[in-house]
């Protein structure tokens, strides 16, 4: 399973990219608004940092608006992919933009049927939201499993991006469920490194070495 970073913060993206563990970035209007900077400039800077798919989400709600905005955003860099919501208007835009060769990530997926619809309209990626389902007492991981099973059974090539990741266990479970990608917030990336036995091991190795070789 590949890892993307779910962020529009350039410092966070640069740090996690330096670690060599990501191969893409997802943004959404909330993440962009949180940074308060120019949308297109931010996307261009992200594209300079990371060599991989970068999801950019139009804010219009009609297919016409999404198509126009999607075309503009796609011009920023060849790695920009357009993120569209799983609405009827979103799928009309998905069909049109994908027919023009623009890759689409269909987002806000909360059911297997929504994922299936997105694939039929030409989506290259679907993004089921694990954490938001867990928040309402539904099983987000089970949704990822269902979508991955359906795609395998029917040999559907659309990739599954497990999104709305809230903790490191979500990542392990999405990998076991067969997700192609998990898009992970910076804070959760940092938590993935942690294990008390790793810290203790490093401390002990150094102590043992120093006791013999350090004068
Ligand atoms: C996905 O691409 C979204 O940007 C993101 O994962 C949403 O996560 P949230 O539920 O934490 O806002």
What this model shows, in words?
The protein is of the alpha/beta class and 215 residues long. The chain is built from 11 helices and 8 strands. It has helices spanning 10-18, 29-35, 39-49, 63-74, 88-99, 112-120, 130-135, 140-153, 168-177, 186-193, 196-213, and strands at 2-6, 25-26, 54-56, 80-85, 104-109, 125-128, 159-162, 181-184. Strands 1-2-3-4-5-6-7-8 form an 8-stranded parallel beta barrel, surrounded by 7 helices. Helix 5 (88-99) links the parallel strand 4 and strand 5. Helix 4 packs parallel to helix 5. The model has no long low-confidence stretch (mean pLDDT 97). Residues 6, 26, 28, 107, 127, 129, 131-132, 163-164, 183 line the site of erythose-4-phosphate. Residues 6, 26, 28, 107, 127, 129, 131-132, 163-164, 183 line the site of erythose-4-phosphate (E4P).
How do the helices and strands line up, and which of them pair or pack?
Layout: E1 2-6, H1 10-18, E2 25-26, H2 29-35, H3 39-49, E3 54-56, H4 63-74, E4 80-85, H5 88-99, E5 104-109, H6 112-120, E6 125-128, H7 130-135, H8 140-153, E7 159-162, H9 168-177, E8 181-184, H10 186-193, H11 196-213
Parallel strand pairs: 1-2, 1-8, 2-3, 3-4, 4-5, 5-6, 6-7, 7-8
Bound molecules: erythose-4-phosphate (E4P).
The site of erythose-4-phosphate has 11 residues, from helix 7.
């Amino acid at each position: 399973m590949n890892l993307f970073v779910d962020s529009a913060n350039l410092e966070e993206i640069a740090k996690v990219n330096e670690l060599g563990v990501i191969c893409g970035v997802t943004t959404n209007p909330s993440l962009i608004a949180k940074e308060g900077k120019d949308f297109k400039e931010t996307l261009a800077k992200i594209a300079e940092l990371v060599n991989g798919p970068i999801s950019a989400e139009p804010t219009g709600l009609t297919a016409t608006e999404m198509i126009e905005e999607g075309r503009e955003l796609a011009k920023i860099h060849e790695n920009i992919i357009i993120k569209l919501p799983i609405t009827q208007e979103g799928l009309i835009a998905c069909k049109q933009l994908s027919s023009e060769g623009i890759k689409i990530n269909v987002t806000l997926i909360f059911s297997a049927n929504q994922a299936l619809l997105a694939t039929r309209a030409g989506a290259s990626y679907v993004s089921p939201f694990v954490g938001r389902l867990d928040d309402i007492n539904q099983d987000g991981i089970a949704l990822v499993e269902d979508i991955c099973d359906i795609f395998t059974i029917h040999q559907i090539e659309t990739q599954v991006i497990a999104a709305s990741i809230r903790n490191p266990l979500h990542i392990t479970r999405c990998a076991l469920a067969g997700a192609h990608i998990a898009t992970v917030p910076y804070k959760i990336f940092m938590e993935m490194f942690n294990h008390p036995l790793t810290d203790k091991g490093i401390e002990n190795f150094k102590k043992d070495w120093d006791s013999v070789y350090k004068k």
